[in-house]
Amino acid sequence: MTVSGFTFNAFSENTYVLHDGTGQCVIIDPGCYEPAEQQALQRFIAEQGLQVVLLLNTHCHIDHVLGNQFVLDTYQVPFLIHEADAGTLRSVSAYAPSYGFARYNPAEPTGFLTPDQPVQFGNTELEVRFAPGHAPGHVVFYHAPTGVVIGGDVLFQGSIGRTDLPGGDYATLISSIHSQLLTLHDDTVVYPGHGPATTVGAERRSNPFLN
Questions:
Q1: Which segments constitute the Metallo-beta-lactamase domain (predicted)?
Q2: All structural domains of the chain
Q3: CA 36, CA 139: separation in Å to the nearest integer?
């Protein structure tokens, strides 16, 4: 499995395309809002000859969902979130204009993610791990064979997700990090929702929030 990343919108949000040798791919957290951002994502998929088969959100804060409807309009694929974040997704329409996103086009999920149901595309299987605290329905996606986590806004290089937004809770987030991420091998690469990738081991050793 290959992870390809893009940084979109005013929040510098990381959007990921996961693809394997079959040519199938999934798009995770499309933050593309401006036409140039949408075109960059679409151009990459076309140039790589990829077939989009699924849209996933780690969680549904505004910066991670701005491109959801664009992806659905372009590729007509299933769209999955954790059910506990459905309210988070629905609330975006109310505050998007005040953040400067007057053209936000809301999308409705076609189904829900559960930790006991892996996500599959091509020859790839992703484990769904429930990791609330930053958002009530936050999940991360773990690919054991390559030691990769698509982590959303749970754990960052030297930091953690904020917990002062509706549905956030600091103790819950710390518990999620310890149970869902720090139980993985030190070499596991974490691709976060913002900023550079890191590893479980690096954060275990030096992240000030985890000591």
A1: 12-194
A2: 2-206 (3.60.15.10)
A3: 28
Q: Taking the model in full, what pTM does it have? A: 0.97
Query: Which 3-state string (H, E, C) describes the chain?
Result: CEEEEEEECCCCEEEEEEECCCCEEEEECCCCCCHHHHHHHHHHHHHCCCEEEEEECCCCCHHHHCCHHHHHHHHCCCEEEEHHHHHHHHHHHHHCHHHCCCCCCCCCCCEEECCCCCEEECCEEEEEEECCCCCCCCEEEEECCCCEEEEECCEECCEECCCCCCCCCHHHHHHHHHHHHCCCCCCCEEEECECCCEEHHHHHHHCCCCC
